[in-house]
Here is the input.
Amino acid sequence: MNKFIQIRMIPAAFLGVLLCAVGLLWPESEYKRPLTVAVNIWPGSERLVMACEASNTNDLRINLVEMSWSTAVLTAFRKHVADAAVVTLDELIRLEADGAKPRAVLFLGISKGSDAIIGHAVPMSMQSLRGKHIGVELRTSSEYLLRHALTANGMSFEDVEVVPLNLAETETVLKEKGIEAVVTADPWSMRLQAKGSSVLYDSSKMDLELSRVLVVREDVLRAYPRELRSLVSACLGINSQAGLLVNEDVQGAVLRREGLNAEQWRKSLQKMHLPDAAENRRLFKQEAGGLGECLKKMSVEMLQMGLLKHEVDVRGLFTSEFLEENP
Here is the structure.
């Protein structure tokens, strides 16, 4: 190699080393993973599924993780696998008691019969369940509903034989010999009734307690404000039962997820109430009849029932900051 070529190569080699050094020293762009939302199967949650799809853009990503039962959702939230989740109000209180720091940001739906205790086709009542086996998913809203129903009928948890199971098992377990009733929710409740099973007690006899809310961890409020604002806004855009019956393509996907036919789907929507933006703000802010009063009452009841080991301060369990921008 002649001297001219060697001289020409020295600056190029130096430039290459310099570029490598700059590359090593240049600060890496911070990766921000998508907001992850855990949701279990329930007709009212379809509102959130549609909202997640509407919120996703090139620079704003939300991952939806669908799970078949409540305990899986609660575990994902506790273990930070999910940043947000759909839970009932008693589950919200349980998460706070466990130190998970949940904060409710939106009322998704208020159950008006969508959660139920289902028995065999033969004439039955809650009183007839004394001493009988009942399938229930423990440490979830199913247990809360069962305890509430037993108390309302002059009974206690000790008066029945509890068989632990998850919601996805309730449809098949009721067929088994020895199981007299199950605590379940739509869509499983709807399918069981279609097969001739009877409703012994349901959430229409309760107030806000069996409501589903969207909760996020306290640290997520500051880490994902754009995603949460977009998600809440999109969800409130689907503010009525009619919004979940928009077109055949969307409804077809919903029916496949829920395992219902069109008529069952319409009936299931009649057993819940979907609060709009104005009602959400009212429920979050008002003293009498609002979310705060309901949580306080439930916390006392859950402590008395033995569902909590200690009293829970419910005052900071919800925030309306993502509701203010919605008309």
Remarks:
- Residues 35-111+209-305 form a domain with the D-Maltodextrin-Binding Protein; domain 2 fold (CATH 3.40.190.10).
- The mean pLDDT is 86.
- The chain has two domains: 35-111+209-305, 115-205.
